[in-house]
Amino acid sequence: MKLLSVAVPCYNSQDYMRHAVESLLSGGDEVEILIVDDGSTDATGQIADDYARRYPGIVRAVHKENGGHGDAVMTGLANATGLYFKVVDSDDWVDAQAYPRVLEVLRGFTGAPIDMLVSNYIYDKAGTAHHHITSYVHALPQDRVFGWEAARRFHKGQYILMHSVIYRAQLLRDCGLTLPKHTFYVDDLYVYEPLRHVKRLYYLNADFYHYYIGRDDQSVQEQVLMRRIDQYLLVNRLMVSRVDLNTVGDVHLRRYMIGFLEIITAVSSVMLLMDGSKAALEKRDALWAFIRERDPALYRRLRRGVLGRLVLARTRPGRAAATLVYRVSQKIYGFN
What count of Cα atoms within 13 Å lies in the side-chain half-sphere of residue 235? Predict the structure, then answer.
């Protein structure tokens, strides 16, 4: 069994996928790199096959019909033989200095595996001199195994994303995780849904993942997100419907999950506010009505929060205030 399987979902990624794969190769024989060609129409498949030929036993090329990012992630998990599982998007990469430290930590728990390893990630935004680093030094204990009861409060912008997490592969399988096909923004669901099954965590304060922001067609680009808002809303609804937060026993984990869901719901609502059309505002109201019907207690918690009050504003000044908060957050945390 490999120590770590890394899935690299690729769709028409010929221009940048090599950087992602090359950054992972220094892991050596302990790491299995699964290049998942999601029905690409360019040279992605040939590049994947070339890597598999050059690095037998380390790189595997998996070809499939196009099903979207989430389907590629699930295909990677289905083919993974490693004890642990990581996703690295084809336009991102891992840090050469932090990589050996991550493997050392994972290697130390092969006898009694941890459920989740958390590390830092860097927003590598094109055209900016300063790259924001998301770390968890004030939220999570360092360099020891712990449970959710040891977690402290996460501040806004500090939530655990796909970039910062390595899961135990069998945990993902056992919890029944599925991701919808032909849907962007499933990263949030991938991280969120398995959390209630995580008992043993470890935080490594290392800047491991480089999250590149700069391509015009990236799903996180604001204009692209607004065009695909229905997909974002689908993920938002699935996060609400798949996890009954009333059954999450640990209060620290429940508080974290509510906070994360609050951010996702606020982003959904702000995108619709910025659209401003009657149809968009109806979608916003429908989302909140869905939450109220599924979980009245959660609805009240989100509705009474600062973000809830802002994004549900009915007046122009109120909507302007919500947009301003979003813009300021962009500047502070470097996303989009």
Answer: 27
Average per-residue pLDDT for the chain: 91
| pLDDT (average), residues 27-38 | 98
Six token digits for residue 154:
């996460």
Question: Residue 88: is its pLDDT beyond 50?
Answer: yes
**Residue at token pair 């998996």:** 62
Using CA atoms, how far apart are residues 167 and 173, in angstroms rounded to an integer?
A: 10
Tell how far CA 285 is from the center of its chain.
Answer: 26
Give the list of residues 6+ apart from residue 72 with CB closer than 8 angstroms, or none. Answer: 7, 9, 10, 11, 36, 38, 64
What is the rounded CA–CA span in Å between residue 66 and residue 184? 13
Q: How far apart are the C-alpha atoms of 97 and 204, rounded to whole Å?
A: 13
Q: Do the Cβ atoms of 28 and 46 come closer than 8 Å?
A: no
Q: Parallel, antiparallel, or unpaired: how do β-strands 165-168 and 31-38 relate?
A: unpaired
In DSSP terms, 121 is beta-bridged to 134, 209
90-109 residue pLDDT tens:
999 999 999 999 999 999 99
215 has a pLDDT exceeding 60: no
3-state DSSP assignment of residue 118: strand
79 phi-psi bin (left φ>0, alpha ψ -120 to 50, beta other): alpha
Planar angle of CA 100, 85, 27, nearest 5 degrees: 25
Q: Per-domain residue ranges for the chain?
A: 4-213, 222-333
Helix and strand numbers (H, E) in the chain are: 13, 10
Look up the pTM and report it.
Answer: 0.92
Residue 223: how many CB atoms within 10 A of its CB? 9
Architecture of the domain delimited by 4-213: Alpha-Beta Complex (3.90)
